[in-house]
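Would you mind writing out a protein's amino acid sequence and the numbers that encode its backbone to help me picture the idea?
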Amino acid sequence: MSKWKELAFEVLNGHIISKEEALDILNSTDMELLELLHGAYIIRHHYYGNKVKLNMLINTKSGLCPENCGYCSQSSISNAPIEKYRMVDQDTILKGAEQAYQLQAGTYCIVASGRGPSNHEVDQVVSAVKEIKDKYELKICACLGILKPEQAAMLKEAGVDRYNHNLNTSENHHDSIMTSHTYQDRVNTVELIKEAGISPCSGVIVGMKEKKEDVVNVAMSLRVLDADSIPVNFLHAIDGTPLEGTKELNPRYCLKVLALMRYVNPTKEIRISGGREVNLGSLQPLGLYAANSIFVGDYLTTSGQETTADHQMLKDLGFEVDFVKETVQ
C-alpha cells in the first residue's frame, strides 16, 4: 500500500494532517501523482461518492471597486479593459437563476464587486433571492464583500444559503497581494456570516507568487475556520493587473494543491474554480478525483469552458451531477 493511501485511511480514521505532511503533498514527485490522487479519491468517495456539485455565478456589479487586490481586474489599480456597470436589475438576476437551473447547477452564486454592499444593493439581492426561491430548488450563495451584521441577517431571512468570502492566501502573504483591507477583515466576515446562520464558503487563489508554506497555511486556516465550501482558484493572470504575466503553475502542481485541500479538509466541498481551464488544461478531469464541485459557465471577467464540455467530462468520468431537478410548486 502506498504511503498516500495509508495517509488517506488515517484521515478517515480521524487523523489531522500536520504541516509537515501537508508540505510533503506539495513536494511529492510527479511519479507519485496518481498514488496521491488515489488517496485523495478514497477520502472524496467516502464522503461524496462519485457525485459532483455544479455551481454557476452571475457578476451583478462589475468593476468600480475601491480595493487594491493585485489579482483582480475589477480593482481600483487595474487597467484591464473590462466591462464596468452598477448593480443589474432583478430580471437579469432571475434570468441567471433560470440558466443555472437548466444547467443543473445546484448552487447559484450572486456576486458583486466592491468592498461591501450598500443597503440598497442588499435590498436588491434580497428581493431577487425571494423570487428565485419561489420558483426553483436552487441553493443561493451571495458574494458581496464585507458585511454588516444587519445585512447578514437580511440575507439569511431572504433565503441565502451560503456566503462566499475568500481568504485568498495566507496571513503572511496577504499584504503582498492587497493592503486596502486586512487578512483579519476577511476572517471576521466569515465569522460574521457563521453567526448569522449562513453556511460559510471561503477559499484560495493559488499562483500569486506565494510559497508552498503559504498554501499549506491557508489550507489549515480554512480547516480552523470550518468553511463548508472551499473554492480553489488558480491564478488566471489578467493583463492590466499587478500580477500580469505571472505564470508559476503547471497542471501537476495544481492537482497536488487539490489533493492537499482534500487531505486537510476531508469532509468539505472542494470546488475547482477560476483558472481551471487555463491551468489544469487537459488534466482537468483528474482534478475531480480530489474535488467534488466545479463552476460551469463563465467567471467574473474571464470565460469558462463550454458547459456541454463540462457535462461530457463528468459523463466520461462516470460521475453523477448532484442535482434534483424539480421546481417549487
About this structure: The mean pLDDT is 91. The first strand starts at residue 51 and ends at 61. The chain has 13 helices and ten strands.
